[in-house]
């Protein structure tokens, strides 16, 4: 492979890590036809009052009976991130919540019938000397292809098992790939998300903690999140 080919390969890999699974056009058309909208991209945002840069991700997606796609974001240790705001829309299988953090792990899953794809990627900020804006560094942590799960979680009779099961992924040699331990719970929840027909809520992100500071003399509550 020539140097230019290596550079193109590295750029493509970096782009996929930043923006999510590289799906063929027919898969994207199938998702669009079914009204499933997933926005796995991670962006860099500047908070002017706090004078800092943060990463922005959107938990989104949902399912119909024969297909599902979803992405969510957790902390580096696998714990749930509180959202900045939840999104309530008339439409289903779209955006559910906006999350901000200086580092985050994206968990993205695609289900086509009974076949599953999983990508887990770490996103952090790199401070560059003599530059104001940091760079987004995206590092793949896990990639599972052609996963299998024997239970049809999208069916109502199996609703109670959602959030408790995850697909099994195999290596090319036929050996089961262990899921990253810190993210097992989030993987089970994102598995539920791609089986949630007509989804209108988050599966992984959690509400922010609201602290009541005091009651003003006008009887109003001052709160902070």
Main pleated-sheet profile: 8 strands, antiparallel
The rough form would be described as: globular
Total discrete domains? 1
Structural classification: alpha+beta
Strand content: 35-45%
Mean pLDDT: 89
Distance between the termini: 52 Å
Description:
This protein is an alpha+beta fold. It has one domain (3-224). Helix content is 16%, strand content 35%. The chain is built from three helices and ten strands; from the N terminus they run H-H-E-E-E-E-E-E-E-E-H-E-E. It has helices at 3-19, 25-33, 184-193, and strands spanning 43-47, 52-64, 67-74, 85-86, 95-101, 104-112, 115-126, 135-148, 211-215, 221-224. The strands form two sheets. Strands 1, 2, 3, 4, 5, 6, 7 and 8 form an eight-stranded antiparallel β-sheet that branches. A two-stranded antiparallel ribbon has the order 9-10. It is globular, with a radius of gyration of 19 Å. Residues 1-12 have low confidence and may be disordered.
Annotate the secondary structure layout.
Layout: H1 3-19, H2 25-33, E1 43-47, E2 52-64, E3 67-74, E4 85-86, E5 95-101, E6 104-112, E7 115-126, E8 135-148, H3 184-193, E9 211-215, E10 221-224
Antiparallel strand pairs: 1-2, 2-3, 2-5, 3-6, 4-5, 6-7, 7-8, 9-10
Brief digest:
This protein has 225 residues and is α+β, with helices and mostly antiparallel strands. It has one domain (3-224). It has helices at residues 3-19, 25-33, 184-193, and strands spanning 43-47, 52-64, 67-74, 85-86, 95-101, 104-112, 115-126, 135-148, 211-215, 221-224.
